[in-house]
Amino acid sequence: MRTVVFDAPPATSAAHAWMPSSPCGPGCIDAIDEVGPARVAARLAGIAGLLLSYPIAHTVTPRGKRAPLQRGYARLLLGCLGLRLRVVDHRVAAGERGVVDEGDTALAPAGFGAADRGVLVVAGHISWTDIVALASVQPLGFVARADMVDWPLIGNLAKLMRVIPIERESLRGLPGVVAAIGARLAAGERIGVFPEGTTWCGRAYGTIRPALFQAAVDTRTPVQPVRLRYLDRHGVPCTVPAFVGVDTFASSARRVLRSRGMVAEVVLEPVLEPGADRRELARRCEAAVRGAAHDALDGTEWIEAGHTRVQDPSLATDAPEVRRPRRRPVLRGRRSTAAAR
């Protein structure tokens, strides 16, 4: 066993007590093998071609046939970012494990739920690449930071995917976001959420907050827990794609584009029925996403930054907004030698 110490920068003050903040920063980012400038240029050219052609392809494709188109473009975009997709399905019969790697064979039509019913897809949040990885499994809408539509590369895609914007600084806007999610779920759509509320490095993680689960409870919509992680070319979990700390989109994108041999692994856990209590549903979902079965996959001990736990906000529009004092956290955890190989 060896100890891994994450000396993270202080969490910044939040606009209100609910707003999550991650202490992850540059010290969390691993070194990784890199490709040369020519490969980076080729990847950028491929991304540009996809982003220019997709709006046209989307417009000319009949609505009923857009799902395969969207999934195909997402997989191509993931490949241009230098990432392979690996899907692990834990929903298969007991004693079996469905694993499909696009580097070895054509991906099976894995999905997040029944075709004729909405589903709330819940995952931990590591990077902006999470959206591309999940969309590569099956097209879905997302709840995402409101300024994403202004980002280069993926802003236009966010608009076409009908992203539900959320202003994390505005607690008063939360009921409207929950209502929008509920309406889309009731219409039979798949909606992805990252209820940690911010990005983490992939080894440390935040608490799954209950608020957005209210939409699933209100509409009786099932929840699909997803374990999402990134592996280097040796199969070891890595933090290179993490969008944390002082990262800008440009600096994060450069790091991803220069990486060699990374894999985005999407693990589909058994679907959960919503029940009647969003807090209880959030706890069940967190157990699925962070449970002991995950540790069995790689021997990694996950680190929970408990200092960011705050009380779930009321969904009332008159909930008070208060400021939280600065803290200087240090995350400590251990990783097994098996995971380090």
Automatic annotation (TrEMBL):
One GO MF term attached to the UniProt entry: acyltransferase activity
Region (Disordered): 308-341
Biased composition (Basic residues): 324-335
Residues annotated as domain Phospholipid/glycerol acyltransferase: 119-231
Keywords from the UniProt entry: Acyltransferase, Lipid biosynthesis, Lipid metabolism, Transferase
InterPro entries membership: Plipid/glycerol_acylTrfase
Descriptive protein name: Lysophospholipid acyltransferase family protein
Source taxonomy: Bacteria, Bacillati, Actinomycetota, Actinomycetes, Mycobacteriales
